[in-house]
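dumping this here so i dont lose it
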């Protein structure tokens, strides 16, 4: 039965415009990062075109592979968390927005199958997006002829992209739970943006590794100095957040009054 539900969720996502919107969002990350690297690398030509070459230099950026990779990690640390939240909000809020939640709940299927299938669908699609980000990022960096090319740096960076994506996905049950409470898209998106802002603040303190929404920005180097590895405490926090919110989402869908 779960396989049938999973295939259905995959099919719904494939036919949805959210697939193209999310793909476009991911595709912009290497392009914007590459543009910034080009501005730093060619400040005179950038100035002639009206771009802020001097501002880019003042920021202390270096147009090389390590600097470019750092920008991609930062973009995914924030943009990826928002993007997976958009995907999750769509998967869990669509039936409420379309007014079809009663039809879904009337099906002779255990409701936890719906939650699990939607989370797996989000993980699958987000994984494909990050794979595309890694490939496109490599191509953009190669076209820019950035110095400092080293597979010993680039290959681990690809793994770090997927790790940041996994951290972001572990927070999706919380987004899903809010989507069920809010019965739509807006509440989970507002929740994600608020938690990310709070995570940036907490990340600037010594408590960042204990706050779920600070962990991805810290690992990406957005909320202060970059944390190279995830501590056992951070892994426990992420795991506990995922389990508690996933169970809460399943119980909500099972017992809450979902009739419209």
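and the seq i came up w/
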């Amino acid at each position: 039965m779960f396989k049938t539900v999973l295939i259905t969720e995959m099919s719904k996502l494939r036919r949805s415009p959210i697939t193209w919107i999310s793909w476009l969002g991911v595709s912009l990350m290497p392009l914007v990062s590459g543009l910034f690297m080009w501005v730093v690398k060619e400040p005179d030509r950038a100035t002639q075109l009206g771009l802020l070459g001097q501002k880019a230099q003042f920021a202390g950026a270096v147009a090389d592979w390590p600097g470019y990779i750092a920008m991609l990690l930062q973009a995914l640390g924030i943009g990826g968390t928002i993007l997976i939240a958009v995907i999750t909000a769509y998967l869990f809020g669509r039936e409420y927005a379309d007014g079809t939640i009663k039809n879904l709940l009337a099906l002779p299927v255990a409701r936890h199958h719906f939650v699990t299938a939607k989370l797996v669908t989000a993980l699958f699609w987000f994984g494909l997006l990050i794979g595309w980000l890694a490939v496109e990022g490599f191509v953009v960096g190669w076209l820019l002829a950035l110095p400092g090319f080293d597979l010993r740096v680039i290959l681990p960076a690809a793994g770090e992209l997927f790790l940041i994506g996994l951290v972001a996905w572990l927070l999706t049950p919380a987004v899903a739970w809010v989507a069920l409470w809010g019965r739509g898209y807006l509440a989970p998106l507002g929740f994600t943006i608020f938690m990310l802002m709070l995570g940036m603040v907490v990340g600037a303190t010594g408590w960042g590794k204990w706050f779920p929404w600070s962990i991805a920005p810290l690992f990406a180097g957005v909320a202060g100095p970059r944390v190279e590895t995830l501590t056992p405490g951070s892994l426990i926090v992420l795991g506990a957040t995922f389990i508690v919110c996933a169970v809460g989402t399943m119980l909500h869908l099972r017992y809450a009054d979902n009739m419209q």
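The radius of gyration is 20 Å.
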